[in-house]
């Protein structure tokens, strides 16, 4: 089994090395903790605390801060924030130690804007590409980027849960078991469901539909889990279902050609039909770094631009999603324009 090892060189620098030894792979986790401690020393102590106190809100594929029995029956209007691709390290990815000033500046302002919102969003969902470097390709940089994320988003008011999904950069374009294990240790479950304000949410790992050849068992479990969640959704005929994921099923239309930015056919149409038949109303996606979207039968696919590094005309921003008893509205806001007063 392929593994990774941290060792100290003659100058006492920690060195990252690849190895074929299973035992070394196990001890690497201990070394990585040491590296983490070393990096944390670079932050002021209150920021260290934010990194260490980062809360993982998922357990056994559920979000434990929302009481399902209560949330399932709520009817009053509410809203959440959907964002993605802060991708710490993106702008300076060619450097050995990427300068993250650009991402930090945007996300510091974003956190301030969200903390000023009245009323508060019920949660802030960040649907992938939390960091830029693939976890098992350069674990050291991955940890630096992860800690920067946690340092900044750890400043979000404690009563706004920050929930995340994995993007291709968080688990790799072709995830291995090691990538998934690292992701889980850092962020929690890579797929989960929860009830909030009368909506049943499914957060899925879209990478399973891009390339799962290294982790066929995980992909199978993920698929079984989705089947089970959709069965629950079908049983509760009056319920409304929203899916949150990183890579979109399509950008504008379900019949568009296969593309790097989408999950491709034949999986695309098979899954979309499965979602339609289970009452899914909206699927919020990211990855494209531009605003896009379209409708397939009863489902609206909403593709939202990036928090950092947008590729289209829209400036960095997030989407505000308002949920009412009989409709769901959504608007994209640049970071500067995020409203402090939200009318529902
Ligand atoms: Zn992506």
Automatic annotation (TrEMBL):
The domain of life is: Eukaryota
The residue ranges crossing the membrane are: none
**Gene3D superfamilies attached to this UniProt entry:** 3.60.21.10
Report the residue ranges that make up the Calcineurin-like phosphoesterase domain in this protein: 102-256
Query: What molecular functions are annotated in GO for this chain?
Result: hydrolase activity
| Pfam families with a match to the protein in the record | Metallophos
According to UniProt, the name of this protein is: Calcineurin-like phosphoesterase domain-containing protein
The protein's organism comes out as Gryllus longicercus
Classification of source organism? Eukaryota, Metazoa, Ecdysozoa, Arthropoda, Hexapoda
